[in-house]
């Protein structure tokens, strides 16, 4: 198959597998991102997420992850729910965690994608990634025109906002490459103004060590007392900077059955959360991103938020 036909096949396959957008960029060193990543780490914005300090070169050079790589195929998969299940006064979990863990859902699709590619084209050297390796996914998605990096450091797409997962295929096929688009944030600072822990000290830079998602998911020790009263009832992750973003008014509900919240989760009251047992936790959050905190972490978060009220 020639270049254009291969590229078209990849984009059509992405659509058939349920991905909302597909963009392709040349697999090469991320020269623009290198000094920014170095500076971000130097300021210790990674907090206790020490894994972000590892594999610096691999984060910037996809050919170190896939020798001989020619192209990075970036894919967006919608997770915007039909209904926000957090009512006023309820404990809140990030929308991406309503259903089954996206790593399982999207990895299945990517494996099938690579299989279809090999069926059509022949042997392809490549790897599939979904937030599971040192890949600067937002940088690649930006390069391939899927959106721009917003002031909250998330990828924003004009057609669907930011409630989506980003995945990649890094492969040894040459393809037609897409180009970046312009930044449409303008003078808006809604995300910066809304962040209760001041985790966005300047446009396009997030201090990860001050983010509610960091405190409720990544931090394994006690949450610092100086952020007490600032979590607005978030007990797993946080969507504040996305909820206030004007571009998310264009978000449409996803069609992925595996991301649907269970009826039990939809009906959880603050009392149910406070009294959650190991048995309920294991049943309710089997194959869920919420497994990451374990019951002890979730209880710590609930206690911290409850005492802040």
From TrEMBL:
GO terms for biological process: tRNA queuosine(34) biosynthetic process. It holds the Pfam family Fer4_16. Cob(II)alamin binds at residues 59, 131, 152, 155, 166, 213, 238-239. The keyword Iron-sulfur applies. Pathway: tRNA modification; tRNA-queuosine biosynthesis. Binds 2 [4Fe-4S] clusters per monomer. It comes from the Bacteria. Coiled coil: none annotated. This is Epoxyqueuosine reductase. It comes from Pseudochryseolinea flava.
């Amino acid at each position: 198959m020639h270049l254009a036909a291969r590229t078209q096949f990849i984009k059509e396959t992405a659509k058939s597998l349920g991905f909302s957008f597909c963009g392709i960029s040349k697999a090469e060193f991320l020269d623009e991102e290198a000094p920014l990543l170095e500076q971000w780490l130097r300021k210790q914005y990674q907090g206790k997420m020490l894994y972000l300090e590892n594999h610096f070169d691999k984060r910037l050079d996809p050919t170190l992850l896939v020798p001989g790589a020619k192209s990075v195929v970036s894919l967006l998969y919608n997770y915007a729910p039909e209904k926000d299940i957090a009512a006023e006064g309820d404990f809140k979990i990030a929308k991406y965690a309503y259903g089954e863990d996206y790593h399982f859902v999207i990895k299945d699709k990517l494996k099938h994608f690579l299989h279809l590619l090999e069926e059509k084209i022949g042997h392809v050297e490549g790897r599939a990634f979904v937030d599971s390796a040192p890949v600067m996914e937002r940088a690649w998605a930006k390069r391939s025109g899927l959106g721009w990096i917003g002031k909250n450091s998330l990828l924003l797409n004009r057609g669907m906002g930011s409630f989506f997962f980003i995945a990649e295929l890094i492969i040894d096929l040459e393809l037609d490459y897409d180009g970046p688009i312009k930044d449409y944030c303008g003078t808006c600072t809604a995300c910066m103004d809304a962040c209760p822990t001041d985790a966005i000290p300047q446009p396009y830079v997030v201090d990860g060590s001050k983010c509610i998602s960091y405190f409720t998911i990544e931090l394994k020790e006690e949450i610092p007392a100086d952020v007490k009263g600032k979590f607005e009832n978030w007990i797993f992750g946080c969507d504040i900077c996305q909820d206030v973003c004007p571009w998310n008014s264009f978000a449409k509900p996803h069609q992925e059955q595996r991301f649907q919240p269970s009826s039990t989760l939809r009906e959880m009251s603050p009392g149910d959360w406070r009294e959650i047992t190991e048995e309920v936790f294991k049943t309710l959050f089997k194959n869920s991103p919420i497994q990451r905190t374990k019951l002890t972490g979730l209880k710590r978060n609930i206690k911290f938020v409850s005492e802040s009220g």
